[in-house]
């Protein structure tokens, strides 16, 4: 049986944006409900931070902190102030009128406001040794994958780590993101290879020029990585690279590999009920977290395709909570007045017309309902291509200069 709950603020997400929104909402006594998901988008609760190791650029931790540890602290602080957290994935929403409705497999929540903080997932390619646990044999040694052991999807987050300093590094991609991350890595690595499966870049002209003129960058044109190889310490030590034109295979020594093939915002479950851009990011009004639906706000990487840092996500989570609180203050009283105001028919029947003038009928939600016919949309999924196929096909399609997610 589906459990029914009510809340002034329903938050969907589990990263720094979601928990900052929860902390602010709970301290404002709005009794928020937060759905952190159950392996939503293939990532544990906590979001992208759970896929990294040392976090060294979040204020308050001068010695650094593990990604999983800081997300645990986010969660504990949300709970401390009274946030109700459920490890359930939102499957559908109805944002056509207030109060909004949010469903998981076990619950139906009615909410005055909704904060979308579902993040964006870094696209990764799959090959032998690229993951966390895709074990294989290398020189007689059983080795797990090298994710977080030399392979990352965030040069800005991880590139300055001691294990990468003065070592050869590699970037996979061909768009502005890859060029920007390669340039960043040249500050720390001895050399940076850019592995690109085509013989030309789709990056902007200025980014191409800047990258190709950098003496520390070497292009591996028309090439793909077939395998990641490790050393006796279980860390990445080389890439097996295949030339797609000649078929030649060679091992390239590197200590780090960074995917720079774009991100996929977790917005499919919204079913188009809020405005999205061409890449699927939730569109918000400039300088705010307001979406195209009044009372629905978006924070963090699901609406930020440029910066994608934990600290910027937390900032927009704060903004979303404050805006939700202001929205409830402004519109909650209007809704209450609308619900209690007599209609002309009721007033006439009771002989309660003021000065003999009928009271006008008010909209049930204070005039905020642009859609008279509610429509519930279920999660349509990610389309015909798998994330891996989409990443391989679109590895250089994201041409927007941006910083990677922390």
TrEMBL record:
Into which EC class is this enzyme placed?
Answer: oxidoreductase
Keyword set, alphabetical order? Disulfide bond, FAD, Flavoprotein, NADP, Oxidoreductase, Redox-active center
Per the record, the domain of life is: Eukaryota
Give the EC number(s) under which this enzyme is classified. 1.8.1.9
Domain (FAD/NAD(P)-binding): residue spans on this chain: 8-317
Return the Pfam families for the record.
Pyr_redox_2
Q: Name one GO molecular function term.
A: thioredoxin-disulfide reductase (NADPH) activity
Q: What family does the entry list?
A: Belongs to the class-II pyridine nucleotide-disulfide oxidoreductase family.
What protein does this entry describe? Answer: Thioredoxin reductase
């Amino acid at each position: 049986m589906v459990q029914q709950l009510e809340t002034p603020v329903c938050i969907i997400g589990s990263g720094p944006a979601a928990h900052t929104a929860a902390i602010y909402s709970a301290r404002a006594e709005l009794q928020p409900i937060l759905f952190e998901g159950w392996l939503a988008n293939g990532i544990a609760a906590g979001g992208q931070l759970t896929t990294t190791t040392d976090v060294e650029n979040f204020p308050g931790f001068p010695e650094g902190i593990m990604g999983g540890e800081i997300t645990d602290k986010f969660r504990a602080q949300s709970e401390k102030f009274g946030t109700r957290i459920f490890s359930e994935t939102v499957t559908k929403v109805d944002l056509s009128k207030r109060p909004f409705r949010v469903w998981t497999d076990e619950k139906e929540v009615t909410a005055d406001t909704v904060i979308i903080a579902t993040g964006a997932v870094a696209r990764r390619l799959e090959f032998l040794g690229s993951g966390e646990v895709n074990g294989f044999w290398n020189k007689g040694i059983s080795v797990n994958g090298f994710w977080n052991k030399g392979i990352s999807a965030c040069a800005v987050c991880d590139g300055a780590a001691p294990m990468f300093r003065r070592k050869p590094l590699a970037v996979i991609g061909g768009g502005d993101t890859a060029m920007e991350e390669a340039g960043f890595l040249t500050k720390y690595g001895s050399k940076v290879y850019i592995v690109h499966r085509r013989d030309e870049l789709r990056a902007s002209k200025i980014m191409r020029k800047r990258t190709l003129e950098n003496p520390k960058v070497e292009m591996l044109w028309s090439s793909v990585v077939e395998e990641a190889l490790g050393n006796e310490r279980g860390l990445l030590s080389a890439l097996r690279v295949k030339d797609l034109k000649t078929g030649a295979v060679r091992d390239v020594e590197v200590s780090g590999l960074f995917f720079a093939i774009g991100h996929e915002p977790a917005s499919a479950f919204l079913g188009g009920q809020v405005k999205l851009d061409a890449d699927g990011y939730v569109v918000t009004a400039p300088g705010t977290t307001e979406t195209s639906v009044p009372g629905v706000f978006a924070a963090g990487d699901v609406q930020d395709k440029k910066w994608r840092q934990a600290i910027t996500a937390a900032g927009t989570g704060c903004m979303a909570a404050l805006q939700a609180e202001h929205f409830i203050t402004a519109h909650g009283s209007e809704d209450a007045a609308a619900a209690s105001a007599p209609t002309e028919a009721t007033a006439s029947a009771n002989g309660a017309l003021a000065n003999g003038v009928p009271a006008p009928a008010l909209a049930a939600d204070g005039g905020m309902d642009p859609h008279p016919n509610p429509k519930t949309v279920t999660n349509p999924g990610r389309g015909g291509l798998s994330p891996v196929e989409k990443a391989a096909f679109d590895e250089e399609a994201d041409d927007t200069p941006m910083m990677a997610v922390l």
